[in-house]
């Protein structure tokens, strides 16, 4: 396995981790909005 393949693998892992972080933020924001909507009733 060449160093280039190792680096490409690391980049893929980091990209995947960032995508998961963004998705988690979206879910948290949606949850907070739903919570605030529920509190209005």
Give a verbal description of the structure.
The chain is mostly helical and 41 residues long. The protein is built from one helix and no strands. 0% of the residues are buried.
The amount of helix comes to over 70%
Strand content range: under 5%
Low-pLDDT segments, ≥5 res: none
Distance between the termini: 60 Å
Radius of gyration: 18 Å
Shape: rod-shaped
N-to-C series of helices and strands: H
- Let me know the average pLDDT: 94
State the helix count: 1
The main sheet comes to: none
Structural features:
mainly alpha, 41 residues, 93% helix
Summarize the structure.
This protein has 41 residues and is an all-alpha fold. It contains 1 helix and no strands.
Topology:
Blueprint: H1 3-40
């Amino acid at each position: 396995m060449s160093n280039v393949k190792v680096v490409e693998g690391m980049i893929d892992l980091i990209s995947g981790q960032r995508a998961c972080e963004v998705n988690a933020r979206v879910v948290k924001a949606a949850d907070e909005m739903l919570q605030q909507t529920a509190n209005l009733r």
